[in-house]
């Protein structure tokens, strides 16, 4: 029989805005205390206040491993446990290879990949010791298929899918569940960066191309509900949106390459 999903203590990174904020709200609605952790201190404070008494704010740069460990340890010490760690903070950095320099790559790797590794490492230590817990990492449809002219984003999101699915196997024996979220386009401020990023990708026509790929954007709330339902059902990969579903089904059922 499946264990009931009744989280009491959760941390969500990048929770001041968009998908992270909606996941925090969904976890609060299911009765969990939630730490709204974000680089944007004011945004985190505002979001926590809006989410009510079960939510509290923390300022956090996920790229800072020591800070992530300190937050996870503090929350666990305060509440005696950590049930859910959502490594969601991410940034959209795009461009063709010739347009990118070291700073673009370092930034994308630091936030989108190191940030997730930092959260996973800190949470796994605590959850392994308590013999239970859920880790949810936010990747993207761009973690399953390439997003054109979004090289650093595609690279880091593919790595997050790889990290999550590989860790899932070893974590299961420790009572820790690992899932990865792969949404298509979601209506959040991050999309402004997608539109702004690669001039070479067509400038203002990027919006039109995105709309062509996915005519109707997902809402953060839809995405969050699917994410938390997927977590409760212990899904390895949680695709959200038609394209992501199609892609994941196709990949999953693809015969092994000879
Ligand atoms: P968003 O911009 O609304 O929210 C991202 C949040 O992360 C912001 O509050 C920001 O302050 C925070 N953040 C950025 N860098 C940080 C850092 N170093 N440490 C801590 N917090 C930091 O964007 P969103 O669309 O909600 O994105 C959330 C996640 O979902 C990202 O990982 C993104 O790649 C992923 N995603 C988004 C879409 C989409 O279409 N919006 C699709 C698939 C995946």
TrEMBL record:
Pfam families named among the record's database cross-references: adh_short
Keyword Transferase: no
UniProt superkingdom: Bacteria
InterPro entries membership: NAD(P)-bd_dom_sf (IPR036291), Sc_DH/Rdtase_CS (IPR020904), SDR_fam (IPR002347)
Keyword NADP listed: yes
GO molecular function terms attached to this record: oxidoreductase activity
Keywords: NADP, Oxidoreductase
Family listed: Belongs to the short-chain dehydrogenases/reductases (SDR) family.
Protein name: NADP-dependent 3-hydroxy acid dehydrogenase YdfG
Source species of the chain: Pedococcus dokdonensis
Source lineage: Bacteria, Bacillati, Actinomycetota, Actinomycetes, Micrococcales
